[in-house]
Amino acid sequence: MRSEDIAKLAGVSRSTVSRVINNYPNVPEATKAKVLQVIEQHHYEPNSFARALAGKRTDTIGLFAISMTEKEDTSRIYQNSYFAPIVDMVVDTANARGFYVLIHTVYSPGDFQKVKQAFQQKRIDGGILVGTQKDIELVREMVGQDAPLVLIDYDISEIMAERLNKNHLAIINSMDYEGTVQAIEYLIELGHREIGIMKGRMNTHSGRERYLAFEHTLDKYGLPLRDEYILEGEFLKESAHREAHRLVDQDSLPTALFCSNDDMAMIAMGAFAERGISVPDQLSVIGFDDVELASRITPKLTTVRLPVDEMAKAAVLKVIELCETKQPAFSTISFPTRLEVRDSCKPPAK
What is the 3-state secondary structure (H, E, C) of 238-283? Predict the structure, then answer.
């Protein structure tokens, strides 16, 4: 059904239908109600592309999940314990406020062209980038599209140094450093002195923050940072499984292992079980994120809770706010984390 048909059924002009659709203030309430009733009865949907060409808002935001370290799989983000809850919360929050969500996964640098096109063709009013790896040129190019942009998990100091805070831009982070410190101090309180780490990707803000907090906390308490206990997990399950086996093959084991996310922690626990290493009797394991499965496995995983729902909801509200702000605005929000103590850690064996 076209807007002309809506106009005939409502007994008004086509321009009046257009003013109602675009929420112009100069339409009498009775006329507006009549048009809206016809629209609802006939399930009319305005053409968002035509609205974009006319310079109107499309009431659509883009959600771009960046995952360039894993093989392309169209269903992967919906199965990923980090991306999936973000996707769900972004869609639910946006829909509740009358916005659609365009979802796209970036698997290679070439995929960023599609992100740029979404902005250039005015198919979206603003965008949310999650999983952003350290690539200031990409961010500069995105904010150069003059559209509101929210980054989840990005280094604020890098944005400030490049003076990109003069744009319609917001950054949503969690207090990963503080959360990691809390996790390592908990292990130290249990009596652990030989603590290893399964690192995440160091080209991500969260990966760097969690590693630096681990390193600094060991130094603060005068504990050794042993190279053989530093595992290159890269936030990938395959890497975590390989590195866990490599750790077992060494002459000695740490008494505790901090994993930079829960996926790696759970994979490592499985690899240890394959080699006859009992968690937590022989090796304590602690994770980060508090994904849904963490409290269901045996033993239940002690982990740092990442407030994913709160972060995703804040990202949507912020990008909508930026869409309604004519002047460039920059802001940052950082959400606290919380240690969830369960069953995968205990004092080291005597």
Answer: HHHHHHHHHHHCCCCCCCEEEECCHHHHHHHHHHHHHCCCCCCCCC
> Does position 168 have pLDDT exceeding 90, yes or no?
no
Tokens, residue 293: 């499965």
pLDDT band at 53 (very low <50, low <70, confident <90, very high): very low
CA distances from 29 to 11, 41, 197 (A): 15, 18, 63
Q: Name the phi and psi angles at 324, rounded to 5.
A: -95, 0
Whole-angstrom CA distances from 215 to 22, 174, 177 are 54, 19, 11
CB 58 within 8 A of CB 48: yes
Looking from the CA of 189 toward its CB, the CA atoms found within 13 Å total 8
Segment 229-238 mean pLDDT: 94
Cβ count near 246 (within 10 Å)? 13
N-term to C-term CA, the chain: 76
The residues near 339 (Cβ < 8 Å, ≥ 6 apart) are: 179, 182, 183, 186, 302, 303, 304, 305
Q: What's the whole-model pTM score?
A: 0.81
Residue 15 to residue 163: CA distance in whole angstroms: 43
Per the model's pLDDT, the better-predicted residue between 87 and 120 turns out to be: 87
Question: For 124-149, how does the pLDDT look when each residue is reduced to its tens digit (9 = 90+)?
Answer: 899 999 876 666 777 777 777 777 99
Q: φ and ψ at 22, to 5 degrees?
A: -95, 10
Burial class of 254 by CB neighbour count within 10 A (0 to 12, 13 to 18, 19+): buried
Q: What is the pLDDT of residues 105-116, one digit of tens each?
A: 877 777 777 777
Handedness of CA 314, 315, 318, 324 (dihedral sign): negative
Q: In the numeric block, which tokens belong to residue 170?
A: 């917001």
